[in-house]
């Protein structure tokens, strides 16, 4: 399976702190994406980084990609209680398959 | 979840009965996907469609069939539901299959 793995499985921090989540994957990719899922809801696309990019920013989000290590990290700065959710990485591989492979997710809890 | 709706939102059914879940989109996207989400497994692809009447299997397709007779509708059918198919089912859409997906709110299916 190409399914990625997020680390840690669960993370609990105080409001205002930074949160870092990691994702490892198995095959060569075209791009890697991060999604957020609030409890009982569908996933929401956050950010995409292409295989030829090393770092990308969007608001309080910073994503890095290391294709040599097949890993990515998502940093959320100055966390808020509203950031409490599960975060998933998803990869688009180079086989030409037009679908994404999702990891198992990191459950983030931000304590007010 | 604008542009994509799933029905029903919740369903309880008995083992051995057929069940059909519906995904409806108003975005005119080419690609539509059915995923199931289970604790410890993240999201796993069941089937996807890359056009009207064009479908393909995902990694967990056994026991499921799909149909897409119109661009806007993608149906997932469990021919004879089993307890192992108790899960939350998500539909997703994409314009090109590799970039940001839009997810529905999910269908929670319980097979008793």
Describe this structure in words.
The complex is a heterodimer of chains A (112) and B (112). With 112 residues, chain A is mainly beta. In chain A, 0% of the residues lie in helices and 57% in strands. Chain A starts with a strand and ends with a strand. The model of chain A has no long low-confidence stretch (mean pLDDT 92). Chain B has 112 residues and is mostly beta strands. Helix content of chain B is 0%, strand content 58%. Chain B contains no helices and eleven strands. Chain B starts with a strand and ends with a strand. The model of chain B has no long low-confidence stretch (mean pLDDT 94). Chain A binds chain B through residues 1, 3, 30-31, 33, 35, 40-45, 48, 88, 90, 92, 98-105, and chain B through 1, 31, 33, 35, 40-45, 48, 50, 58-59, 90, 92, 94, 96-106.
Give helix % range of chain A.
under 10%
Radius of gyration of chain B: 13 Å
Average pLDDT confidence of chain A is 92
- Number of helices, where a helix is a run of at least 4 consecutive DSSP H or I residues of chain A: 0
The most extensive interface between chains reads: A-B, 24 and 28 residues
Query: What do the pLDDT scores of chain B average to?
Result: 94
Distance N to C terminus of chain A = 38 Å
Fraction of helical residues of chain B: under 10%
Compute the number of strand runs of chain B.
11
In the predicted model, the low-confidence regions of chain A spanning at least 5 consecutive residues are none
Label the structural class of chain B: mainly beta
Strand content of chain A: over 45%
- Please report the distance between the alpha carbons of the first and last residues of chain B: 29 Å
Instruction: Output the structural class of chain A.
Output: mainly beta
> How big a fraction of the residues of chain B is strand?
over 45%
């Amino acid at each position: 399976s190409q399914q990625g793995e997020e680390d840690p499985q669960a993370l609990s921090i105080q409001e205002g702190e930074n949160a870092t989540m990691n994702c490892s994957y198995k095959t060569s990719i075209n791009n890697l994406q991060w999604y957020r899922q609030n409890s009982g809801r569908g996933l929401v696309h956050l950010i995409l980084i292409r295989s030829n990019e090393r770092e990308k920013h969007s608001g309080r989000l910073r994503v890095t990609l290391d294709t040599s290590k097949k890993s990515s990290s998502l940093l959320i700065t100055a966390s808020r209680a509203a950031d409490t959710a599960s975060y998933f990485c998803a990869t688009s591989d180079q086989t030409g398959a037009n679908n994404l492979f999702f990891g198992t997710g990191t459950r983030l809890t931000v304590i007010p | 979840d604008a542009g994509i709706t799933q029905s029903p939102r919740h369903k309880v059914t008995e083992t051995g009965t057929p069940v059909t879940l519906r995904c409806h989109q108003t975005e005119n996207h080419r690609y539509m996907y059915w995923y199931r989400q289970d604790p410890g497994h993240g999201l796993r692809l069941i089937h996807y469609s890359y056009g009207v009447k064009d479908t393909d299997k995902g990694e967990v397709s056994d026991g499921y069939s799909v149909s897409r007779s119109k661009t806007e509708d993608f149906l997932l059918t469990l021919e004879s539901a089993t307890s192992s198919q108790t899960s939350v089912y998500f539909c997703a859409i994409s314009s090109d299959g590799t970039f940001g997906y839009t997810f529905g709110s999910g269908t929670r299916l319980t097979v008793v």
